[in-house]
Amino acid sequence: MADQLKNKLGSCAIVLAVVEGDKVSLIAGVSKDKTGQIKAGDLVNFVATQVGGKGGGKPDLAQAGGNDPSGLSAALAKVPAWIQAQLGA
Hints:
single chain; 4-stranded antiparallel β-sheet; globular
């Protein structure tokens, strides 16, 4: 799904999250043209550390997990500002 969204959106950085019970699963994707500024592993870890987890992957696609779903909404709300900071905006 992350790859399909990247292809559809073009130049982008995305984070997808799923909560199942007390587990959070995350995936981050970054379009190839933005991997020089934003690394998917850094992005997914930014969210994961706020939900009690960690992760990693390639510059354009990374996965993470966590065990504190209560922090997910706040973590996702911080993503746009984090991305803007990486872009130097």
